[in-house]
Amino acid sequence: MTKVLVIDDEAPIRLLCRVNLEAEGFDVIEAGDGPSGLELARAEMPDAILLDVMMPGLDGWTIAERLLEDEATKDIPVVFLTARADLRDRVRGIDAGGVDYITKPFNPVDLAALIRDVIEAVDRGDRETLRREKITELRSLLGGA
Amino acid sequence: MLRLLPRLARALGRRRPRARTTAAGDSFRAEQQAVLLNAAHAVTSELEFESVLQRLVDEVLALLEADAADCWIFEPGGRSLRCRAVKGVPASNVGRQIPAAGTIGQAIETGRPVLTHDFARSENPPPSKPYSVFEDVMVAPITWRGEARGALGVCARRPGSFAEHDVETLEVFARFASIALHNAESFQERARQARIERGFFRVADALGSPLSLGETLDALAQAAAEALGGDAAVVFEPKDERLAVAASHELGSGLSTGAGGLSASALPFSVDPGDVRIVTSSSLAHDERFDEEWRRALVAEGYRALLSAPVVSGKRQAHAVVVLFVEERTFTDDDIALARHLADAARGALERSDLFEAERRANTLSQRLAALGARLVTNLDPGVVLAEIAGEAPILLDADAATVRLLEGDELVVRATTGARTGLAEGTRSSSGSGFLGEVAQSRAPAVVEDVRTTPRASRTDPLLGEGMSACVAVPMVTHGGGLLGVVTVYSASPRTWRDDEVQALTALSVVASAALANAELYQRVAEEKERNDAILANIADGIVAVDRDERIVLWNATAEQITGVPVEEALGRRVPDVLQRELSSADEAPGEREITILRAGKEVFLSLTEAVMSDSAGAVAGRVFAFRDVSAERRLEQMKSDFVSTVSHELRTPLTSIYGFAETLLRSDIAFGETERDTFLRYIASESERLIAIVDDLLNVARLEAGTIGMAMGATDIAEVVDEAVANASEAANGGHSFHVDLPADVPRAEADREKLTQVLTHLLENAVKFSPDGGTITVSGRGKAGSVEVRVSDEGIGIPRSDQNRIFSKFFRVDAEPLSGVPGTGLGLFLARGLLAAMNGRIWVESKEGQGATFAFELPAWRSSARELVPAETAGR
């Protein structure tokens, strides 16, 4: 079963993710802050991580960098959950090793399909292609702004 | 001389047979021949005419053992003989003149020696009284070139002293005498020729170098005297119908100082340029062509002859050079030719000296002009320039006064004067359109008055001409563009003519003066403009920095000092990168407004910068000017605004995510939720909606606070109730991460406040306390009553607030920028709202904190007084 780790300080959002992903057959584990999220990632080796950016203590970008630095976790695809409106913040997420991002508020019904696609792409070895596409997309948005 | 000796020997030899009567006679004659030869040698070895004469009488007296001897020479004209040397009679006889009569006359007439044995009785009259003692007198004529020139005589008291052979001896000696005198005269003539030749050279030399007129005339007098062998010379020049002594050489004082000069008729020659005759007088004493008085004066000074030559040069009236001689003399063709040569040379010299004088005048004028010009153009005060012009103009023309008039409207106004009594004219006005000055102004051409008596109209427009000034020259001052600036007038107290070069010099002065005035006025304007610019630059809100072509800073205004923190004295002369650690100029050539950052005391300062490039006439970069504003505050505000938007967006999106997400989840038809799950979802929707409302309320309150339209429901508010409610909410939200402690004594008075707003304030303070103590800890809320007020304190054990931020935390959008808090949510409005709401309730808030040691936010509110009104109008509460 595909295992997804959700790291978010907002309990309702963790619940949202869990309910909708489990309904589509995912195994969901949760962490309410950065340190426990990192610990859980190493312990459970999830297939994907949904990572909130704005959290007290360790923020999402730092957590992503730590995951990338760790040989055990560096290959786990990270999808950012961000409520930040600024495009530069999203670029920063991809730069920190994220493969995709979801902007809050989001429709939780689409969550499962997105995670599945990301995992498949990464499994195909298209992880970097995906990141480059996102960066290009964001840059064109930034340039046009 | 050597050729004569064999003849002499033959003559003596011929006489020998007749003298061979006695041995004693033979012996005597041999002795006498030896003496004669010695004497002949002696006299012929002399070259000086006068010395030869004296030697003749000395030798002949010794030769013939006479008691006296004398020598007579014909005067010029041959009418009489003059005694030239004596021996044995008093020297006073020298100079005596006698006619060629008696013994001497006979000797000259026959050309043979004459011996008279009874001279004392037969000679009538004797040459002089001392001669009456002589019995034997022997006279031989002296002749050369076949002409009798004089006679040589010997005298003896004893009768029979001279024999026939003595006559022969005297005759032979007289021939030697003739030779010696002829030699001496030839020598003298050659000496004279040499002197004349030297004279030529002197004339050429003295008159050849360019000299002033005075020096040329002095040289002429000297050259004339020396060339013609004269004893003195004088140069006359015509002056006011008379002849004045212009120069002289060796002239007796009685003549050279003749004041007023001679009447023009005193000389038999005119100084008319057409009269080029050379006049000579060999014997002045009897020459009645000359004015008697002058002639007598000349004779009294010892002059006996003269030669006069006219010197004509150019259009000038002739000078006359007169050479004077102490002896009567005849003038040869050579003398006349020499005089003509002298006159010619003198004419050339005078023409040169005219040029020289003109050049010298021009030089003097131009030197004065140049010096004055240099002084004028370096002077930058128009008043001083005017005074300089007025002061220098009369000096330039050797005149007495000057005025400078400036054109004001259509009048010429005297603005500067020099000279006696000209001060009266200061400020006087005259028309620039009519009258003498008006003509100068209108024609832009100089005008002169030589004598105001003959130009009375000039005095009508120029008051000075009636008041002691008799002549003037006026020149216009014209601007570069041809406009009239004014008129410079120079005055002379006595009538005078104004030379062309003087008028030209004054015109040149006025040109320089006009330029100097224009300069000074321009400078004045530029100086004023600069002062104005300096004032503007000093007070301008922008920093202004200018660099020259070498990129050295030449301007650094006060605002630039403030913005950069670099004092002007540290900036000037250095390069921008050395002062600011970065360039200001942009690499690209089309710079608009740019934003750059510099470091001021280690802190980043944002500058909005514009740049202008100054180009010189060749198109090269001559310098750059930078204007900049400190936009750091604006940038910080913008950053805070941008952060705020981002933060608010986040704060709004987070509850919205739950609301939207749970709503969509509940709408899923593919999942069947249980009752508990549905309740949980709906509770989240409700609580997140409340959170959303609270945020929106905060934003609204901020807007109302700023607009002053927030409504306050003031009333007696129980602090304990409000604290308990707020702590309960906070504790729930904190989710067990913090422990809460409330310390409120029972006697804390009620506050005068809006209960709901006070709850908001406390909620924000508690939320902050939780947020900024991420590692948990105890949050303490305490309260106490003070005189007339209630104080509440919220303390945490969190990260604290840096001192530098403590003043800013209450401003809108401000959020403490600290690494462990980068992800902490919040709008940055909490403390801003708390302060605003408390102020609206007549309270105040402050913070006490040390970085890393937690923070205490404290506020106080007025204690409730029963007399206080229940409701405070919104308008006043918002203050």
Report the span from N to C terminus of chain A: 42 Å
Number of folding domains of chain B?
Answer: 6
Task: Find the structural class of chain B using helix and strand composition.
Answer: alpha+beta
Count the DSSP helices of chain A: 6
CATH homologous superfamily descriptor of chain A: Response regulator
Q: Outline the biggest β-sheet of chain A.
A: 5 strands, parallel
Strand order of the largest sheet of chain A: 2-1-3-4-5
CATH topology of chain A: Rossmann fold
Using only C-alpha atoms, the radius of gyration of chain A works out to: 14 Å
Report on the structure:
- With 145 residues, chain A is an alpha/beta fold.
- Chain A has helices at 11-22, 34-44, 60-69, 87-95, 111-123, 127-144; strands spanning 3-7, 27-31, 48-52, 78-82, 100-103.
- Chain A has one domain (3-144): Response regulator (Rossmann fold, 3-Layer(aba) Sandwich).
- In chain A, 50% of the residues lie in helices and 17% in strands.
- In chain A, strand 3 (48-52), helix 3 (60-69) and strand 4 form a beta-alpha-beta unit.
- The longest helix of chain A is centred in the C-terminal third of the chain and has 18 residues, at 127-144.
- Chain A starts with a strand and ends with a helix.
- Chain B has 879 residues and is an alpha+beta fold.
- Chain B has 6 domains: 4-191, Beta-Lactamase (2-Layer Sandwich); 209-359, Beta-Lactamase; 379-522, Beta-Lactamase; 540-630, Beta-Lactamase; 636-694, Orthogonal Bundle (Helix Hairpins); 708-877, Heat Shock Protein 90, CATH 3.30.565.10.
- Chain B has a 6-stranded antiparallel beta sheet, with helices on both faces.
- Classes of the chains: A alpha/beta (145), B alpha+beta (879).
- Chain A binds chain B through residues 10, 12-13, 15-16, 19-20, 23, 53-60, 83-86, 89, 104-109, and chain B through 642, 645-646, 649-650, 653-654, 656-662, 664-665, 668, 670-671, 677, 680, 684, 688, 771, 774, 820-825.
